[in-house]
Amino acid sequence: MSQVKAIIGLGNPGPEYDDTRHNAGAWLVAAIARDSHTPLRAERKFLGHYAKVHFAGQDLHLLLPQTYMNRSGGAVAALCQFFKLAPDELLVAHDDLDIVPGTARYKQGGGHGGHNGLRDVIRALGNDNSFHRLRIGIGHPGDARQVTNYVLGRPGKAERAAIDTVFGEIEATLPDAIRGDWARAMNRLHSFSAEG
User: In chain numbering, where does the site feature Discriminates between blocked and unblocked aminoacyl-tRNA fall (predicted)?
Assistant: First the structure.
């Protein structure tokens, strides 16, 4: 089973997007960097903010692409080329409309499900979609026409607290995921819910 060597948090750059639901993946990677006491620094060659941390006994690359969401793939491809990473050594953290706030799911492979960041990552990796995903629940507005405004909106206080709570559970399951023990990581994470 493949080990995870890099975690990429998808989001949009700039202060106007920092607190928006679409940046849930970026929030997680920022939390891991903070908890590892390692600042993310601007790294031009990776088109993003980068840190190398020691987590769960191994070195791990963290990346926040600073391109816009629909151009995330360029940063991911640059990181893979530089460190010679295979797609199945990546864990891409992203917001997910199909699961509720306070829950998260691991997944490997599959399509992009309409997520522009995932769509561009798959394209940039030569249509290889074998990378691992961490789906962070943000819920759905209930009407497809409201999705854009919803993902680019800010969560309420209870909703954000639920998302932050699931981050703690994600970090507790990451050592298993990083080692490639996906069954154990999924078993714990998928049974967790922080009711928001």
Answer: 12
Partners of 48 in the β-ladder: 43, 65
Q: Are 142 and 177 in contact (CB under 8 A)?
A: no
- pTM listed for this prediction: 0.96
- Closest listed residue to residue 59, CA positions, set 4, 131, 130, 132: 4
What are the catalytic residues? 22
Give the integer Cα–Cα distance in Å for 42 and 57.
Answer: 25
Q: How far apart are the C-alpha atoms of 164 and 104, rounded to whole Å?
A: 11
Q: Is 17 annotated as a binding residue?
A: yes
The answer to the question of whether 116 is labelled as a binding residue is yes
Q: Residue 163: what pLDDT? A: 96
Residue 180 phi, psi dihedral angles, 5° rounding: 95, 10
E strand spans, the chain: 6-9, 41-43, 48-55, 58-65, 90-96, 104-108, 132-137
